Structure formats: C-alpha cells, structure tokens
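Possible regression after last week's pipeline update?

I re-ran a chain I had predicted before the update to compare outputs. Posting the input and the new output here so someone can diff against the archived version. Not blocking, just want to make sure nothing changed silently.
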Amino acid sequence: MRVPIDGLPVFGPASALVTIVEFTDYQCPYCARAESRIQTLKQTYGDDVRIAIAAHPLPMHENARAAALAAFAAAEQGKMEEMHAHLFAHANALDDAGLAKAAADVGLDVARFEAARRGPNAAAALAQAEALAKTAGVKGTPTFFVNGRRVIGAQPIETFKTMIDEELARARALVASGTKRTDVYAKILESAAPLAPATEPGGEACGAGEGECGKGKEGEGPSEQKFDVRVDGLPLRGFARAPITIVVFGDFECPFSAREEGTLRELEQSYAGKVRVAFKNRPLPMHEHARLAAKAAIAAGAQGKFWEYHDVLFAHTHDLDRASLDKYAKDLGLDMARFARDIASADVEARIAADEAEAKALGVEGTPTTFVNGRRVIGAQPLTIFTAAVDRALTEAK
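New output (post-update):
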C-alpha cells in the first residue's frame, strides 16, 4: 500500500531499507505488547529499519488523545522517541499529572511542553495522523505497514521478521540496481497499490468499532431476555439479601473489564444495600496472563481475600506475570505455600472451566459481559445504562 510518511515523526535513519509505519494508541494494551516487539526488531536490524509513528487514539481510551498530543509536544523539543517509550511504560498514568511527570522524566522543559501539547502544532500533527489512518482504513490498533504491507494487531515477532527479511531482500535488489538507500521507500511507493481498507484477517487489536474485548456497542442496553445465571458458591460483594444481583463475566487482563469495575463501584454507592455483585471468570485466549490471573484470584478467594485480590489485579492489568501475582498475594498476607498449591490445583482449573462452560451457554463471547438480575449487558457500558437496568430490575422486584 502507498503509505506516505511525510510529516510523521520517524525513529531511525533516512537510509533505512525498511520503513514501518505504526498506527498506535498509547492506552491500548496490544500496542504496548507490540511495542516491545518493535524494540526487539530495531535492535535486531539496526539501521536497516526505521519506524514512522502515526498516532491513532481510539475513542474508548479516555487518555489516549492527550497522550498522543503529549508525544507530539515532546517532538517539538526533539524528545518524541523518549516520550513514546515512556508513555507505553507508564500506560496507567496518562492523566494530566502523569503526562507532566513524563515530560520531566524525559528531560523536557515542562512549561514549554504544557503549552505545546495544548497548542496548534501538536493538534495539527495528530490531525494529519488521523487523516492518514482514515485513508488507510485503519480502525483498530496496533496496525502496521512494513514497506507498505499491512500487518494488523500484535502479531508474533516471527511474523514481522519474515516480512522484514523479505523486504530487505527486495530493497537490497533495488540498491544493487542503482537506487540510493535514501530513495528506497519512495521507489517502493511508486509501484505500491493505492491505500484501501483492510481485507486480510487481523491479530490482537483494540477497537475496530467495538466497545469491549469481544463484541458490543457503546450505549447498547440490557437484553429483553432474562437468563438464569447461578451465583451459588461464588464470593459476593454487597448486601447478601440485596434485591439486585449483578454477575460479571470478566477477564483480569481486559482493559474494558477494568473500566467497568469503576462503573460498578459507582453503581453500588448509588444503590447501597440494594445491589450485590458476583464475578465469574472468562479469560480470553488473546490475553496471555488472564487464565493464570483467574486462577490466582480463586486461590486468594480460598483464603478469604478474593475481592481484595480482584481489586489489585484490575489495578495492575499490565503486570500479571507469575512474579507479580505472587507479590500481590504476599502483600495481602496470604499463606504462600497454600496459594501456590491452589493455583496449580485441578479444582481451580475446574472452577474456571465451569465458568467458561456457563459463559458459552449464556452467549458470552467477549468481556465484560454483565447480567443485571438476569438481563445481559454487553461491554463496558456507561453508568447510565447500568442505572437504567437496576431501576428496571427494582421495579420488577416489587
């Protein structure tokens, strides 16, 4: 595809033989995962590869746009590459205070940075990147173009290496035939197809018009059909005899499940004594640590600390490796020998399998999927949707 990079910030030399255009969102967990692979590729291929950044903040990520503007503001002081890396390393701190700290951490003049990220240059740079995304049919993030060849999602590093090796061979042939290294990308664009929407299948990607790690549209209300969702044996949060039971099928690595947790907390405060919450595990295959995190939460629950552990996991959706899970358990004062045995037990795996079987029976595909007195709500919907669902359920319960 003919993907121009004029005006985009570029990391790497103009003489690079392979140009990767990266459409990214600093609050997208898959972009963060892909970014680590891109850094490995830069180390592997050195000056043969350069990266052009096209920020594409998605509407579902509340701080993504501000982070993108911050990156462009850093570019005005020659520090975009440093800021780019810092934003991904601190994706949970992209509010105004976090961005100001990021500027100081990478050595920017903070006052100048604050003015620049709210100024016309950063806005114009972002508008250019978003216009390019629209022209290229980029919907989800991350999306890459490797010398014009589209790669959708956080694909395995081998996928990128195979494509880069093929493009290096093509580029070296051009150089051997007389094309200057600095002209290779322009030469490739001459024979590339015009930009068009994607037709090939994607990998792990945020967005593409979805409101969760699965399916569902923002503002979509609860189903008319009522489902029988079991809660016996589950840890419950709230008044045990509350008239409204909310059952969440969630994934501890899903950013939308984490977002919904904040909404549910607000709901519980507004309907104190009238709402109770139960949690069922639906770890998605696309999330490499989700299943282990689910086992850890059940193991914590065996020691009476499910909700405390549940809260810690959603506060650290980017840090769910085994070492982190053990640290959270230790911080909560759990018996670590018992915790380790429970994580590895067949009973815990069976609990997750039972939740997954029920999810399938109830038509739960993505996370979060929530049932309010049996009525299904798909995705991390706004508080107003849940408020309306609870009000309706309270009326029905009278």
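Follow-up from reviewer: compared with the archived run. Residues 236-397 form a domain with the Glutaredoxin fold (CATH 3.40.30.10). Marking as no regression found.
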